[in-house]
Amino acid sequence: MTTFQGLTPGAFEFYEELQDNNNREWWQEHKNSYQSLVREPLALLLAELEPQFGPPKLFRANRDIRFSEDKSPYKTAQGGVASAQEGVGYYLQISADGLLVGGGYHSRTPAQLARYRNSVDASGTGESLRHILEAVTAAGFAVEGEKLKTVPRGYARDHPRAELLKHKSLSAGVNLGRPDWLGTPAAVQHLADLWEDLRPLVDWVSRHAAP
Questions:
Q1: Helix (H, G, I), strand (E, B) or coil at 27
Q2: With a threshold of 0.85, does the pTM exceed it?
């Protein structure tokens, strides 16, 4: 059985070159490098993490350019998720900048957003989330997500968790650059440890703001 052995520097170099050559001709010439340097190793990495974090999915390399002014056909990063629920789970991404690790949720429906806001509004679940995010921040992650400029209608502007109520999506992530361990099998455990730091956030969303 083939197991994850690490990501080579070539994975990052691939995206460095793609940034300057984002066209179909270059991609076709380097497609085998994408498969061997990027997609296949990440698929093996996610497969080893699946028992602990859920079914994996690697995103497609092509951009959806139908409604975009930027017609560059390929993404300049490779992302993947591990998740038991659509839109909720753990995330990783590699690009020319290195490795990004995160977790949380992206709202899919108005009903999901309503569940999230109601849970933030309630003192028990809302304070639980606030404490979780404090711990996540202390662990080195940045709290992120799409936000409204003001507190949504129906909630007091001076609500004790006003900033959390503004969120339409909620995640936490950290940019790690190119750590040496990413080139070794030990990356599996390092990534598992990082995702475990995010598990309380993912579990909270799964219970209180599921799709």
A1: helix
A2: yes
